[in-house]
Amino acid sequence: MRKFMSTLLKLSIAVALALLPAPLVRAQTLGNDPAFSGANTHIGTNVPGLIFTVDGQSFNGPIAAFWPIGTKHTLLVSTPVQTGILAGARYTFVKWAITGGPDIPPINPIVVTADANYSQYTAIFQIEYALSFRFNPCADPSNCFAPGRVFVNSGSFIESDTDIYFAAGSGVILTAFPNAGYVFAGWNTGINQKVVGFVNTVTLNGPVVVTPVFQVVRRLGLDTVPSGLVLLADRQTVATPTVMEWGWNSTHTVGVISPSTDLQSKKWVFFKWSDGGAATHAYKVPGTIGDDSLTAIFIPGAEVSIATQPQGLKLKIDNNAGYPSYNFVWGVGETHRIEAPAQQTDDKGRTWQLAGWSNDGPAAQDITVPAGADTAGIRIVATYNPVGHLTINSIMQTLSVKVDGQDCVIPCDLLRPVGTQLHVSALASISLASNARADFNGWPGTGSFAPDWTVTLGADPVVTSIDYRTMNKLSAAADPAEGATWQVTPASPDGFYDARTIVNVSVSAKAGYRFRGWSGDLAGTNPAGAVPMTTPRLVRAMLDRIPFIPPAGSISNAAGARPQDGVAPGSVVSLFGASLATDTTLGPVSPLAQTLSGVTIHLGDRLLPLFFVSPQQINFALPSDIPEGEQYLTVSMQGQPDARTVFNVLRNAPGLFQQAVDGQTYAVVLHQDGSPVTTDSPARRGELLTVYGTGFGPTDRQRLDGFALPANPTYNLTDGATVLVGDASIDAESGFAVPGRVSVDAVQFRLNDAVPSGNASFHLRINGQESNTVLLPVE
User: Which is nearest to 112 in space by CA: 78, 70, 63?
Assistant: First the structure.
């Protein structure tokens, strides 16, 4: 019981506190004891700072109250229209709103019952902004004259300074009209205003001040001489005479229409304004009371026609060349300047030369409109004659042609009388670089494709160009240079091709070479390819040297070519081919080397002695014990495949050493005293002569193959030799292998009386084998 009384006492105190009046505050909390069963309630306004009352107590800020459930409370906005929050703004009460509750009708005050389901009550105000008019500070509009009026949204109008309130965000359309004695001079612009002429559209995102400007008018009389013509006032046509009402100190544009036509269809040309202004000029209205006048004075106009023959050519009138036509109305007594160019080109490209004016005046002359021309008019014609015109163009720069033997730089532009025949010559070819040139390709549009062209000029212009085609050079090379043959399609005598040509190139490796691949403007290992000649091209065939021995005639006596095929054991032998060695290398004299520059020659597994090696020839000593018959020889070089050939070995295969003198071949023969036989020292009959060669046959003892023979013992030939000099046949006295030499043989003989004098033919015969034939000088 005691606990219940304590709780009841606390509740009574809370209710009493809630109902006590309180001073105006910005924010407050009423009751907040959790021991009570009640509702936490918030009351405020949608615009901070506005005044409302709760149960008779006024507030100007949001409050929080603890209301016992079921208690009644009165919410009131005692001042429905409030100001003071923002200058130029006012706030009009609309209704109370309950957050989360039903929509309440717009009644004021409202009485609510405390309920835990509804905790927020808000007084809703509409914000309105002032639209302030400032143009006529008249305290009593009924007793003062307004300069004009402003209609608001096409409804009511305003004639003096005032404020009108509209809801925030409203759009208001204002239209200004002047009263009698005034003109509307525009709006003083400001924020949130869009002005178009006398209409001002205002958006009220805040307070707005609008100011229409009305000015006192001054009357201006406008007229013409003669009267009744049309003038321009502010670029609008007005009939005269008329009176304009314009505001003080305002500026306006006045102008004339010249020529003008009166009611009798007579033409008039502007002469001057009464104020001395230009035909179109600005007129500023004086800021004083009174009227004014302005008169445009006209003079009679004459219709003037200026033409060209042929029609359509250009003239310059009063220093203006831009008239679309040359029909004018000029005032009587006025002076105008007309000019005809001495030469001009029409819109079809034809050239014309001035012949003269119809009034016999100069090309440029002044024309004064005479009295009476306003009824008779004036017509003047400029006559032109056609001129032949040749133009030659080219895309080639710094180029010239010859016209009748004279140079004419491109673009070549020539004027000549109609009917003139011109002879034009162009360069047949122009060097562009060492590997490119331009070749003449015709005169487009003329049907002529020769560098020399003749044209007869007519009235129509002749325009052509020099057409050149670009020629690019195809350079083809092999590395090594001698190692290949070429096939090029299409063929070209100098290697130059039209830039549009595609050239097919193929290469064949010569004997002793192998194609490895391309460099330059071709690539790959295919020995054929296509080259577009859009630019100078270089193709290079990369080759490898490989030993090569032809299938026949590759081995012979080193002294010279014999009538019969075959070589003898113990002789000096020449092997011919290609890429047999990388360079020429001489071996030692004795003993001979078996390897030179990495090259060896062998029969089976037997290496042969070498005198020298070179890419095309190898000289070696054929051992003296090689049996007769067919033998197989192999050439080996480091890093290259072997080359093989077959040759015939004979017992005897004599070859005479020879020497060339003045294009003739002579035998190597010594006199008995050891001096050489020459044309200055010919062989003598009866003396012992010695002739040298190789392959004369076997000796009575085995030769030291690859070594120079000693002086003793003597290595005598076992087979006898016959010496044939001219028609004479002489048996040799002796034959032997030459001491100190390798594989060199000699035969000694004496000439008899049957031998002819002079350069006699000379050769040996041993066992039916003939040597090569040379010459022997005989005394």
Answer: 70
